[in-house]
Amino acid sequence: MARTRFAPDRGLTARMGLTMFLLGLVLVAFVLAMVLIAARFPANAGAIVIIGVLIAGGMTIGSLFYSDKIALTAARARLVSPQEAPELHGIIDRLCALADMPKPRVAISETDMPNAFATGRNTKSAVVCVTTGLLRRLDPSEQEAVIAHEMSHVAHKDVVVMTIASFLAIVAGLMVRFAFYGELFGGGRGRRDNNQNMAIVMLAIMAVSIVVYAVSFLLIRALSRYRELAADRSGALLTGRPSALASALQKVDGVMARIPTRDLRAAESLNAFYFVPALTKGGLSGLFSTHPPLQKRLAQLAQISQQIGR
Known about the structure:
Oligomer: single chain
Structural class: mainly alpha
CATH class of the largest domain: Alpha Beta
Number of strands: 4
Helix content: 55-70%
Strand content: 5-15%
Low-confidence stretches: none
Largest sheet: 4 strands, mixed
CATH topology of the largest domain: Zincin-like
Shape: elongated
Number of helices: 11
CATH architecture of the largest domain: 2-Layer Sandwich
Order of helices and strands: HHEHEEEHHHHHHHH
Strand order of the largest sheet: 1-2-4-3
Protein backbone atom coordinates (compact mmCIF):
# COMPACT_ATOMS: atom_id res chain seq x y z
CA MET A 1 0.00 0.00 0.00
CA ALA A 2 1.16 3.53 -0.74
CA ARG A 3 2.35 5.66 2.15
CA THR A 4 -0.81 7.56 2.95
CA ARG A 5 -2.97 8.08 6.02
CA PHE A 6 -5.61 5.67 4.80
CA ALA A 7 -6.05 3.12 7.57
CA PRO A 8 -4.19 -0.13 6.80
CA ASP A 9 -6.37 -3.18 6.45
CA ARG A 10 -4.78 -6.43 7.57
CA GLY A 11 -7.81 -8.33 6.36
CA LEU A 12 -7.36 -6.91 2.86
CA THR A 13 -3.67 -7.77 2.89
CA ALA A 14 -4.36 -11.31 4.07
CA ARG A 15 -7.15 -11.83 1.51
CA MET A 16 -4.95 -10.48 -1.29
CA GLY A 17 -2.11 -12.74 -0.23
CA LEU A 18 -4.33 -15.81 0.01
CA THR A 19 -6.01 -15.14 -3.32
CA MET A 20 -2.71 -14.54 -5.10
CA PHE A 21 -1.34 -17.73 -3.53
CA LEU A 22 -4.33 -19.74 -4.75
CA LEU A 23 -4.05 -18.17 -8.19
CA GLY A 24 -0.38 -19.14 -8.15
CA LEU A 25 -1.33 -22.74 -7.42
CA VAL A 26 -3.85 -22.70 -10.26
CA LEU A 27 -1.19 -21.20 -12.55
CA VAL A 28 1.25 -23.99 -11.66
CA ALA A 29 -1.40 -26.63 -12.33
CA PHE A 30 -2.28 -24.92 -15.62
CA VAL A 31 1.35 -24.78 -16.74
CA LEU A 32 1.90 -28.44 -15.82
CA ALA A 33 -1.20 -29.47 -17.76
CA MET A 34 -0.08 -27.47 -20.81
CA VAL A 35 3.41 -28.99 -20.57
CA LEU A 36 1.93 -32.51 -20.53
CA ILE A 37 -0.24 -31.71 -23.53
CA ALA A 38 2.68 -30.11 -25.38
CA ALA A 39 4.88 -33.14 -24.61
CA ARG A 40 2.29 -35.40 -26.19
CA PHE A 41 1.60 -33.12 -29.17
CA PRO A 42 4.53 -30.65 -29.24
CA ALA A 43 3.98 -28.99 -32.60
CA ASN A 44 0.32 -28.20 -32.06
CA ALA A 45 -0.06 -27.40 -28.36
CA GLY A 46 3.20 -25.51 -27.89
CA ALA A 47 2.39 -22.90 -30.52
CA ILE A 48 -1.12 -22.34 -29.19
CA VAL A 49 0.08 -21.84 -25.60
CA ILE A 50 2.92 -19.47 -26.59
CA ILE A 51 0.61 -17.33 -28.71
CA GLY A 52 -1.98 -17.21 -25.93
CA VAL A 53 0.56 -16.17 -23.28
CA LEU A 54 2.02 -13.45 -25.53
CA ILE A 55 -1.38 -11.99 -26.35
CA ALA A 56 -2.51 -12.16 -22.71
CA GLY A 57 0.71 -10.50 -21.58
CA GLY A 58 0.21 -7.68 -24.06
CA MET A 59 -3.40 -7.21 -22.97
CA THR A 60 -2.40 -7.17 -19.29
CA ILE A 61 0.37 -4.62 -19.82
CA GLY A 62 -1.91 -2.48 -21.96
CA SER A 63 -4.64 -2.61 -19.33
CA LEU A 64 -2.18 -1.68 -16.60
CA PHE A 65 -0.69 1.32 -18.36
CA TYR A 66 -3.80 2.56 -20.13
CA SER A 67 -6.55 1.70 -17.65
CA ASP A 68 -7.21 5.39 -16.98
CA LYS A 69 -7.65 6.25 -20.67
CA ILE A 70 -9.75 3.14 -21.31
CA ALA A 71 -12.07 3.83 -18.36
CA LEU A 72 -12.48 7.53 -19.16
CA THR A 73 -13.28 6.76 -22.78
CA ALA A 74 -15.79 4.06 -21.82
CA ALA A 75 -17.48 6.45 -19.37
CA ARG A 76 -17.38 9.32 -21.89
CA ALA A 77 -15.72 11.44 -19.23
CA ARG A 78 -13.49 14.49 -19.53
CA LEU A 79 -10.85 15.94 -17.26
CA VAL A 80 -11.92 19.17 -15.54
CA SER A 81 -9.87 22.00 -14.07
CA PRO A 82 -10.40 23.69 -10.68
CA GLN A 83 -12.02 26.58 -12.52
CA GLU A 84 -14.56 24.27 -14.18
CA ALA A 85 -15.43 22.29 -11.02
CA PRO A 86 -14.24 24.24 -7.95
CA GLU A 87 -16.38 22.38 -5.39
CA LEU A 88 -15.32 18.94 -6.63
CA HIS A 89 -11.66 19.95 -6.67
CA GLY A 90 -12.07 21.41 -3.20
CA ILE A 91 -13.34 18.08 -1.84
CA ILE A 92 -10.45 16.19 -3.42
CA ASP A 93 -7.93 18.75 -2.16
CA ARG A 94 -9.18 18.25 1.41
CA LEU A 95 -9.06 14.47 1.13
CA CYS A 96 -5.55 14.58 -0.31
CA ALA A 97 -4.45 16.70 2.64
CA LEU A 98 -6.11 14.28 5.09
CA ALA A 99 -4.60 11.24 3.38
CA ASP A 100 -1.22 12.85 2.68
CA MET A 101 -1.23 11.66 -0.93
CA PRO A 102 -0.69 13.35 -4.31
CA LYS A 103 -3.75 14.82 -5.93
CA PRO A 104 -5.22 12.66 -8.72
CA ARG A 105 -6.59 14.08 -11.91
CA VAL A 106 -10.28 14.95 -11.74
CA ALA A 107 -12.88 14.00 -14.35
CA ILE A 108 -16.63 14.30 -14.81
CA SER A 109 -18.88 12.01 -16.82
CA GLU A 110 -22.00 13.63 -18.26
CA THR A 111 -24.53 10.96 -17.34
CA ASP A 112 -27.59 10.88 -15.11
CA MET A 113 -26.51 7.57 -13.55
CA PRO A 114 -25.11 8.44 -10.09
CA ASN A 115 -21.71 6.80 -9.75
CA ALA A 116 -17.97 7.32 -9.40
CA PHE A 117 -14.75 5.44 -10.01
CA ALA A 118 -10.99 5.78 -9.65
CA THR A 119 -8.32 4.16 -11.78
CA GLY A 120 -4.62 4.41 -12.54
CA ARG A 121 -1.66 2.17 -11.74
CA ASN A 122 -0.24 4.57 -9.11
CA THR A 123 -0.93 7.87 -7.37
CA LYS A 124 0.84 9.82 -10.12
CA SER A 125 -1.31 8.43 -12.93
CA ALA A 126 -4.54 8.18 -10.92
CA VAL A 127 -7.80 9.80 -11.95
CA VAL A 128 -11.03 10.15 -9.96
CA CYS A 129 -14.20 10.44 -12.00
CA VAL A 130 -17.70 11.29 -10.81
CA THR A 131 -20.91 11.54 -12.80
CA THR A 132 -23.12 14.60 -12.99
CA GLY A 133 -25.93 12.41 -11.65
CA LEU A 134 -23.97 11.77 -8.46
CA LEU A 135 -23.01 15.43 -8.01
CA ARG A 136 -26.64 16.47 -8.41
CA ARG A 137 -28.11 13.94 -5.99
CA LEU A 138 -25.60 13.80 -3.12
CA ASP A 139 -24.81 16.53 -0.61
CA PRO A 140 -21.16 17.61 -0.09
CA SER A 141 -20.53 15.27 2.86
CA GLU A 142 -21.85 12.30 0.87
CA GLN A 143 -19.79 13.28 -2.15
CA GLU A 144 -16.71 13.46 0.06
CA ALA A 145 -17.44 9.98 1.46
CA VAL A 146 -17.77 8.47 -2.01
CA ILE A 147 -14.60 10.12 -3.26
CA ALA A 148 -12.70 8.98 -0.15
CA HIS A 149 -13.80 5.43 -0.99
CA GLU A 150 -12.47 5.82 -4.53
CA MET A 151 -9.19 7.36 -3.43
CA SER A 152 -8.70 4.41 -1.09
CA HIS A 153 -8.58 2.20 -4.19
CA VAL A 154 -5.70 4.31 -5.45
CA ALA A 155 -3.89 4.16 -2.11
CA HIS A 156 -4.26 0.36 -2.00
CA LYS A 157 -3.02 0.06 -5.62
CA ASP A 158 -6.07 -2.01 -6.40
CA VAL A 159 -5.79 -1.52 -10.17
CA VAL A 160 -2.31 -3.08 -10.20
CA VAL A 161 -3.33 -5.97 -7.96
CA MET A 162 -6.51 -6.78 -9.88
CA THR A 163 -4.79 -6.48 -13.26
CA ILE A 164 -2.03 -8.88 -12.26
CA ALA A 165 -4.57 -11.25 -10.70
CA SER A 166 -6.57 -11.25 -13.94
CA PHE A 167 -3.64 -12.39 -16.09
CA LEU A 168 -4.33 -16.10 -15.59
CA ALA A 169 -8.02 -15.70 -16.41
CA ILE A 170 -7.10 -13.84 -19.61
CA VAL A 171 -4.71 -16.61 -20.67
CA ALA A 172 -7.26 -19.33 -19.92
CA GLY A 173 -10.03 -17.44 -21.72
CA LEU A 174 -7.86 -17.06 -24.82
CA MET A 175 -6.96 -20.75 -24.72
CA VAL A 176 -10.65 -21.68 -24.74
CA ARG A 177 -11.27 -19.49 -27.77
CA PHE A 178 -8.19 -20.69 -29.63
CA ALA A 179 -9.08 -24.32 -29.00
CA PHE A 180 -12.72 -23.82 -30.00
CA TYR A 181 -12.01 -22.00 -33.25
CA GLY A 182 -9.05 -24.27 -34.00
CA GLU A 183 -11.31 -27.29 -33.75
CA LEU A 184 -14.10 -25.56 -35.65
CA PHE A 185 -12.05 -24.39 -38.62
CA GLY A 186 -8.92 -26.57 -38.55
CA GLY A 187 -10.30 -30.08 -38.26
CA GLY A 188 -10.90 -30.77 -41.92
CA ARG A 189 -7.44 -30.20 -43.31
CA GLY A 190 -4.49 -32.53 -43.78
CA ARG A 191 -4.24 -36.24 -43.16
CA ARG A 192 -6.60 -38.20 -40.97
CA ASP A 193 -3.99 -38.86 -38.25
CA ASN A 194 -3.15 -35.18 -38.05
CA ASN A 195 -6.83 -34.34 -37.80
CA GLN A 196 -7.29 -36.74 -34.91
CA ASN A 197 -4.23 -35.38 -33.10
CA MET A 198 -5.40 -31.81 -33.56
CA ALA A 199 -8.87 -32.66 -32.26
CA ILE A 200 -7.41 -34.27 -29.13
CA VAL A 201 -5.12 -31.29 -28.55
CA MET A 202 -7.94 -28.79 -28.92
CA LEU A 203 -10.31 -30.70 -26.64
CA ALA A 204 -7.61 -31.17 -23.97
CA ILE A 205 -6.62 -27.49 -24.02
CA MET A 206 -10.26 -26.41 -23.94
CA ALA A 207 -11.13 -28.66 -20.99
CA VAL A 208 -8.15 -27.55 -18.87
CA SER A 209 -8.62 -23.89 -19.78
CA ILE A 210 -12.33 -23.89 -18.89
CA VAL A 211 -11.60 -25.26 -15.41
CA VAL A 212 -8.72 -22.82 -14.87
CA TYR A 213 -10.80 -19.87 -16.08
CA ALA A 214 -13.73 -20.76 -13.82
CA VAL A 215 -11.57 -21.12 -10.69
CA SER A 216 -9.53 -17.97 -11.34
CA PHE A 217 -12.70 -16.01 -12.18
CA LEU A 218 -14.32 -16.89 -8.85
CA LEU A 219 -11.13 -16.06 -6.92
CA ILE A 220 -10.80 -12.68 -8.63
CA ARG A 221 -14.44 -11.78 -7.99
CA ALA A 222 -14.07 -12.72 -4.32
CA LEU A 223 -11.01 -10.47 -4.08
CA SER A 224 -12.91 -7.66 -5.81
CA ARG A 225 -15.78 -7.84 -3.31
CA TYR A 226 -13.43 -7.66 -0.34
CA ARG A 227 -11.57 -4.81 -2.07
CA GLU A 228 -14.81 -2.82 -2.04
CA LEU A 229 -15.40 -3.51 1.65
CA ALA A 230 -11.82 -2.41 2.40
CA ALA A 231 -12.33 0.82 0.44
CA ASP A 232 -15.55 1.50 2.37
CA ARG A 233 -13.70 0.98 5.64
CA SER A 234 -10.65 3.08 4.75
CA GLY A 235 -12.73 5.91 3.30
CA ALA A 236 -15.07 6.00 6.29
CA LEU A 237 -12.19 6.07 8.78
CA LEU A 238 -10.40 8.81 6.83
CA THR A 239 -13.40 11.18 6.85
CA GLY A 240 -14.65 10.03 10.27
CA ARG A 241 -18.22 9.94 8.90
CA PRO A 242 -19.26 6.41 8.00
CA SER A 243 -22.90 7.52 8.18
CA ALA A 244 -22.31 9.81 5.17
CA LEU A 245 -20.99 6.89 3.13
CA ALA A 246 -23.93 4.72 4.22
CA SER A 247 -26.35 7.46 3.18
CA ALA A 248 -24.60 7.80 -0.19
CA LEU A 249 -24.76 4.04 -0.78
CA GLN A 250 -28.49 3.96 -0.07
CA LYS A 251 -29.22 6.96 -2.30
CA VAL A 252 -27.16 5.68 -5.21
CA ASP A 253 -28.54 2.16 -4.94
CA GLY A 254 -32.09 3.49 -4.81
CA VAL A 255 -31.64 5.63 -7.90
CA MET A 256 -29.89 2.83 -9.80
CA ALA A 257 -32.94 0.60 -9.21
CA ARG A 258 -35.09 3.13 -11.10
CA ILE A 259 -32.79 3.49 -14.13
CA PRO A 260 -33.89 1.52 -17.25
CA THR A 261 -32.12 -1.82 -17.58
CA ARG A 262 -30.92 -1.01 -21.11
CA ASP A 263 -29.05 2.04 -19.78
CA LEU A 264 -27.49 0.00 -16.98
CA ARG A 265 -26.36 -2.68 -19.42
CA ALA A 266 -24.61 -0.01 -21.47
CA ALA A 267 -22.56 0.90 -18.38
CA GLU A 268 -22.01 -2.66 -17.17
CA SER A 269 -18.49 -2.85 -18.64
CA LEU A 270 -17.29 -0.49 -15.88
CA ASN A 271 -18.87 -2.43 -13.00
CA ALA A 272 -15.48 -3.41 -11.56
CA PHE A 273 -14.55 0.27 -11.32
CA TYR A 274 -17.83 1.77 -10.12
CA PHE A 275 -18.72 2.75 -6.56
CA VAL A 276 -21.97 0.81 -6.99
CA PRO A 277 -22.33 -1.70 -9.86
CA ALA A 278 -24.68 -0.82 -12.67
CA LEU A 279 -26.39 -4.21 -12.38
CA THR A 280 -26.52 -6.04 -9.06
CA LYS A 281 -26.98 -9.76 -8.59
CA GLY A 282 -28.23 -11.54 -5.52
CA GLY A 283 -28.31 -15.10 -4.26
CA LEU A 284 -25.94 -17.62 -5.79
CA SER A 285 -25.21 -15.26 -8.68
CA GLY A 286 -23.63 -12.95 -6.10
CA LEU A 287 -20.57 -15.19 -6.37
CA PHE A 288 -20.03 -13.62 -9.79
CA SER A 289 -20.50 -10.04 -8.56
CA THR A 290 -17.68 -7.51 -8.35
CA HIS A 291 -19.27 -5.86 -5.28
CA PRO A 292 -20.61 -7.20 -1.97
CA PRO A 293 -24.35 -6.89 -1.22
CA LEU A 294 -25.55 -3.48 -0.09
CA GLN A 295 -26.65 -4.82 3.31
CA LYS A 296 -23.19 -6.20 4.00
CA ARG A 297 -21.60 -2.84 3.20
CA LEU A 298 -24.10 -1.00 5.40
CA ALA A 299 -23.56 -3.44 8.28
CA GLN A 300 -19.81 -2.85 8.15
CA LEU A 301 -20.31 0.92 8.19
CA ALA A 302 -22.65 0.59 11.19
CA GLN A 303 -19.91 -1.29 13.06
CA ILE A 304 -17.39 1.43 12.20
CA SER A 305 -19.82 4.07 13.51
CA GLN A 306 -20.01 2.18 16.81
CA GLN A 307 -16.22 1.92 17.00
CA ILE A 308 -15.77 5.65 16.35
CA GLY A 309 -18.44 6.47 18.96
CA ARG A 310 -16.69 4.56 21.75
